[in-house]
Specification:
GO biological process, one term (chains A, B): proteolysis
Strand content of chain A: 15-25%
Largest interface: A-B, 102 and 102 residues
CATH architecture of the largest domain in chain A: 3-Layer(aba) Sandwich
CATH class of the largest domain in chain A: Alpha Beta
Number of strands of chain A: 18
Structural class of chain A: alpha+beta
Distance between the termini of chain A: 15 Å
Keywords (chains A, B): Hydrolase, Metal-binding, Protease
Helix content of chain A: 25-40%
Number of helices of chain A: 13
GO molecular function (chains A, B): metal ion binding; peptidase activity
Oligomer: homodimer
Organism (chains A, B): Mangrovivirga cuniculi
Mean pLDDT of chain A: 94
Shape of chain A: globular
Radius of gyration of chain A: 23 Å
InterPro entries (chains A, B): Cyt/Met_Dipeptidase (IPR051458), Peptidase_M20 (IPR002933), Peptidase_M20_dimer (IPR011650)
Low-confidence stretches of chain A: none
Chain lengths: 460, 460
């Protein structure tokens, strides 16, 4: 019966492909960059756009819920209190698009090339959460909804979802659900569908190193006054040892050491280091000694400088000994490493290693907790079936390196199962110039979501 | 007799102070930044301005000599072939003014505050070379010239004077002189006049470190792919050891070790480390172990990062693992260290320490040779007398940390004595925001230059 229902929705989706794509393009044209205040108007516009699309798709009610930051768009359709409820989470904000000059086409003017959609947010997360809006439309317009559906689409994921936590805590009843369904991750490949069973947490700080109180002539002072850029490089370099091991005291205290057996399963995922290096045009991979690439991304924490700047960075040569140097540094965390605690460890350590000839300031940005998703929940099993239907393959559980801070939040505050059913691919280049998303991924994602609803309804 | 002549010129200078200052302001309003192509028109305008002022001041002929880069302004007045000839060298180009936001008043709108002229180039070198134009005017308008005078004012000093060398080699006869007189350095203080007897050389390179072929998501790849910013920090950090000693093989091979006796004389120059730290607002000085601050600046080479950039440097947080990171690095050199040789040592070393998981590119910018000036030349003795007249003190010989590459060039190509009679002060903040020059320094400089001509005429 539900299979039959699903078929109607699948047909609807098949018949409305062009319309679905055009709507996504309209959404991608809105530069909703949450990190940069100059796009504030656009972020709000994206929220309005989504509210309207939810109404058009058939929700009973949709609302824009204001927060201290950017609003959360909420919508729901309750067909039967006794049926399971799927809460769809997604985010309508996107990463900054710079450096713009590296884009082959303007980031906010979506185009299709070689069956891929090119635009900032094409995959992360507009292209992915919008599949749920269209899957819902297909089911609702064909009266084939088999679960209650709730939508919670936020606008601050790329800057830490700070206000979502308050919203979730204050709306536990409204958000009551049997599973939080999220498409904001990637699969191994089109041939090897996978479901994310774990995510890393994040700690993000900005550091400022101050030497002299003004920029100096590097001839008159060079050699006699500490150069804050050299000092910053020394300090950053000292944060890892020659084995790629992070030197912050206590950093690894809560990091779980996995059994060789578990690591072996993890390493069973198809992975070619040669292809990986070729695709990135690097001669060698590099990471923490003693771990494979899959382990380094999946089960080990890491530290990366995401940005650095100081002194003269214009054309030509300027012999300046600058007053200040800056860096943005983030740490990816694994289960049990708490973001706030790691941030504090970093702040303490960075201050402790600052030599007396400079002053340092550390400003924490947003953080997020890591998460492990049950591979034995009704939702996970329903997802496995949905993939089996659409891809004729059982999806592999994977550990992703990225962070979706709110997964831990949902598990904690809503006591919900969370399902990370992502349809992205590594080559989507999210957070990079020329971000893209496969047209096929978009449509097969919609179908898989429709099938999931059918199986999840029965699974309960 | 010459004292009498000098007096007429000194009076003329006294009577024309306002006009002198207004002219300097007109020159300072021209943003002749040689490092940045977008100011090209202004650099050429500055050259025309100077040619006209030389004519107004009374030269027999003035010309704009084109080069492969920016032109050299040449002017001369030969009163008697048998009299000594003073060749005045200066530069009309200035350092870039950024960061603009740190200026209290616009860099190219000169203002006087607390008897100081604030503008880019106020001291380096417009304010200083223009003293010679006005001193010449004072002597020529009062028929009290006692030496032949030649002017060679270039527009590429801040970017390496590359074309000046060709010009000098091709115009040896035209530039024939008994001393090259340069005001582009500083004195110890108004109470302690000094003459620069040594300058450091310069080697300047730009480095590029490339990791993956595109910016990556630091979650999906962080820990498994080398981050070019982290790697650049490691490489820069490794260029100096814990004693501030530069680790480039062969870097110190030609560095002279001075006798304790010589070092003691050097350290006799009045210097208060407390005042120095207070003025720069630092808690401690830092430099090569085993040397005093005066020695670190005067007789030791050094390495400074003048600029660094890579990744996301906008507002907020972006979790990017960038494809590239860059730095501008300069080395100050001491006598016997040849700029080209040191640059090559750097290039070889930097490439040799590059790990196999990144690609590095090193691009040399301009360089310059160090110089030692005789403290026993007729010119130096005449300068001592000139300071004695005007300041009632014998000037101290000092070793400056800065570089004026062409000093070595003049000594080599023109076989000339060079005299570095600078009237700047450390607090002038050249190359920094809010560069300034004391109004008193400007006028006392003009007087001292006039007196120098008188003594130098007799010294021959």
């Amino acid at each position: 019966m539900s299979e039959h229902n699903s078929q109607q929705a699948l047909n609807y989706s098949e018949e409305n492909k062009d319309g679905f794509l055009n709507e996504l393009f309209d959404l991608l044209r809105i530069p909703s960059v949450s990190a940069d205040p100059k796009f504030s108007k656009d972020v709000h516009e994206a929220a309005k756009f989504i509210k309207q699309k939810l109404i058009d798709a058939g929700v009973d009610k949709a609302e824009i819920c204001e927060t201290a930051g950017y609003p959360i768009v909420y919508g729901e359709k309750i067909i039967d209190e006794n049926l399971p409820t799927v809460l769809v989470y997604g985010h309508y904000d996107v990463q900054p698009a710079d450096p713009y000059e590296l884009w082959d086409s303007p980031p906010f003017e979506p185009v299709i090339k070689d069956d891929r959609i090119y635009a900032r947010g094409a995959c992360d997360d507009k292209g992915q959460f919008y599949m749920h809006v269209k899957a819902f439309e297909a089911m609702s317009k064909t009266d084939s909804l088999q679960c209650n559906v709730k939508f919670m689409i936020e606008g601050e994921e790329e800057v830490g979802s700070n206000n979502l936590e308050i919203f979730v805590k204050e709306n536990q009843e409204k958000l009551k659900n049997n599973v939080v369904l999220i498409s904001d991750t990637s699969m191994i490949s089109m041939d090897t569908p996978s479901i994310t069973a774990g995510l890393r947490g994040l700690s993000y700080v900005e550091v400022e190193v101050t030497g002299p109180n003004r920029d100096l002539h590097s001839g008159t002072y060079g050699g006699a006054v500490a150069n804050p850029i050299n000092v910053l490089c020394d300090m950053i370099s000292s944060l890892k040892d020659e084995n790629g091991h992070i030197t912050i005291p206590g950093f690894y205290d809560k990091v779980e050491e996995y059994s060789q057996e578990y690591r072996d399963t993890l390493n069973k995922a198809p992975f070619s280091e040669e292809d990986y290096k070729k695709e990135l045009d690097i001669d060698a991979v590099f990471g923490e000694k003693g771990y494979t690439t899959i382990e380094r991304i999946g089960i080990r924490p890491t530290l990366d400088v995401n940005g650095i700047w100081g002194g003269y960075i214009g054309e030509g040569a300027k012999t300046v000994l600058p007053s200040k140097a800056y860096a943005k540094i983030s740490m990816r965390l694994v289960p049990n490493q708490e973001s706030d605690e790691i941030t504090q460890l970093f702040v303490n350590h960075f201050n402790s290693i600052a030599p007396d000839y400079v002053k340092v300031k550390v400003t924490p940005h947003h953080g997020g907790e890591s998460a492990v998703v049950s591979t034995d929940s009704p939702a996970f099993r329903a997802a496995e079936k949905a993939f089996k239907d659409g891809w004729n393959k059982k999806p592999l559980p994977t550990r992703d390196g990225g962070s979706i801070p709110i997964v831990a939040l949902f598990e904690k505050e809503l006591k919900s199962d969370v399902l990370l059913m992502g349809f992205g691919l590594d080559k989507d280049a999210i957070h990079s110039p020329n971000e893209s998303y496969g047209v096929e991924n978009f449509f097969r994602g919609i179908d898989t979501i429709i099938r999931f609803h059918g199986h999840f309804a029965k699974a309960e």
